[in-house]
Amino acid sequence: MSADFSFKLQATLGHARAGQVTTPHGVVNTPMFMPVGTVASVKSLDAQDVQATGAEIILANTYHLGIREQSLYSLEMSGGIHDFMHWQLPVLTDSGGFQVFSLGAQLPHNSGTIPAQVDDSGVLFRSHLDGSKQFFTAERSIELQRTIGADIIMAFDELQPDAFTETQARTSLNRTHSWAGRCLDHWNKHGRLSRYGKYQALFGIAQGGLHKELRRESVAFMAAHDFDGIAIGGETIGYNSKGTAQIMEWVRDLLPNDKPRYAMGLGRDLSDIALAANIGFDMFDCVGPTRLARNGALLFGEIVFDGTTFRVDSPFPRGRLAIGREQYSKDLSVLDKNCDCHTCRAGYSRAYLRHLFRSKELSYYRLASIHNVRAMLRAVQTVRLIILKNGVGE
Fold it and tell me: What is the DSSP string of 250-292?
């Protein structure tokens, strides 16, 4: 690790961990939830809105920024993503590996949907925006992330569906490991710096699908190389709670204590915060909270600790209040009296929020997203305080 990037583990409580990540743009407390700013914007919120929720770091997407050449040029002329979007706190970018397969393979053509074409050199795909051909390699991913200028960047990997057989998963894993080595080489070649002279921490992504030995092999590979942190990727993570917990159980003993552990795509609901803490992740992200907000699902619940396990206490199924329901049309109570977000502190009633939602008023999306992002961040802050108070110091 560089003097500009470090991770300090402060306390543990069972598998749960509390620590701090230091980056060139500031310190982030862990566990951390990263709101997703796909194209240098958390949907419906500006940078000040996001900072007011208590967010200490956001995630931006290399695929979405990289295929927008004019926007990428504007970003570079601005001196990087921080100045471009007026966000002076840390930023993480993913490698684009997920999206080249999930989006680049879904553009309809006369001959039907054309899948992304992958070989050891990289991935050929079509932009979901205009159908233009794009080619991402390990080196291209790192260069795009150097241009974006994030504090934490990710090695390029191949997305592994859960349905992969062990033979398919082995071929894919070998490719991911080869690309990880190429990312390290390119990162070292450029002094581990962004185009703007700031240190960029590089994380490796462990794959392996639902195959225990491949998962362990991949984590061991990433741990043996000079990555600043280790992420766990793949289709299961964030979508299948039991599968996510099982994978972490398989590999936990191989993960270095002195490096951050990142669950990619985990964090749709408040229950995911409890899951991440219980199984020992430090970092996680998801578009879920803002997407749920736009679709009328407002997060509602509190994180509690029963002495052994974190869980969510909520009067609503899955911890979601469905604001579009008719029962809220005459409900003049504040959305959540226990919430300290702008939406709740300002006193916006459930009836008013339902009215905005049903009317498709743009202000609804901002107010709802502020609430959901803050709900997730309050949850991680609660987890952190419980670990520091009741855990074992490091």
Answer: HHGGGS-TTS-EEETT--SSHHHHHHHHHHT-SEEEESHHHHH
